[in-house]
Amino acid sequence: MRRVCFQLQVRPDRIDEYRRRHAEVWPEMLEALHAAGWHNYSLFLRPDGLLIGYLEPASLEADPLKDIQARMAVTDVNRRWQAEMAELFEDLDGAPDEGFLELEEIFHLEDQLAAHREAAGTSTAQTTAHETRARGESN
């Protein structure tokens, strides 16, 4: 599964409005995102307006992010949502869902642990039992 992280910049004077709108996302928008494959989708906001988004696109396409963006682009609810949200962002050319900067993933704990354990010939069950004993827990 691919993981995607992106950033945008919310206008500092519009942060409260951005928060309010995301506390009350339209139910049809929530359903459209889910249906388009925006799974495990979260947004994180710094006090200065730096917005970080994370999702795990449910798509088997070569570029799953572009695929799920295209699925949303054809929905009326997404067009309406993006039009309303655009005014809240800085340095945006187009709709918010088209203007974010995708960040490169350089580390994922589970991937590296799995690779290390495979190379060492240690099964997950063996490692978990060892970790449990090391913490002093009983089985």
Report on the structure:
The chain is of the alpha+beta class. The two termini are 32 Å apart. A four-stranded antiparallel sheet has the order 2-3-1-4. The chain is elongated and about 55 Å long. Helices cover 47% and strands 18% of the residues. The chain is built from seven helices and four strands; from the N terminus they run βααββαααβαα. The chain folds into two domains: 4-103, 2-Layer Sandwich (Alpha-Beta Plaits), CATH 3.30.70; 107-139, no CATH class. The model has no long low-confidence stretch (mean pLDDT 88).
Write the layout of secondary structure elements.
Elements: E1 4-9, H1 15-23, H2 27-36, E2 38-45, E3 50-57, H3 64-73, H4 76-85, H5 96-99, E4 101-103, H6 109-120, H7 124-134
Antiparallel strand pairs: 1-3, 1-4, 2-3
Q: How is the main sheet built?
A: 4 strands, antiparallel
State the distance separating the first and last CA atoms.
Answer: 32 Å
Provide the spatial order of strands within the biggest beta sheet.
2-3-1-4
Low confidence ranges:
none
Strand elements, count:
4
- Rg from C-alpha positions? 20 Å
Q: What is the subunit arrangement here?
A: single chain
Question: What string, H for helix and E for strand, traces the elements in order?
Answer: EHHEEHHHEHH
CATH topology value of the largest domain: Alpha-Beta Plaits
Number of domains: 2
In short:
By secondary structure, the protein is of the alpha+beta class.
Features:
2 domains; 139 residues; Alpha-Beta Plaits; 47% helix; alpha+beta
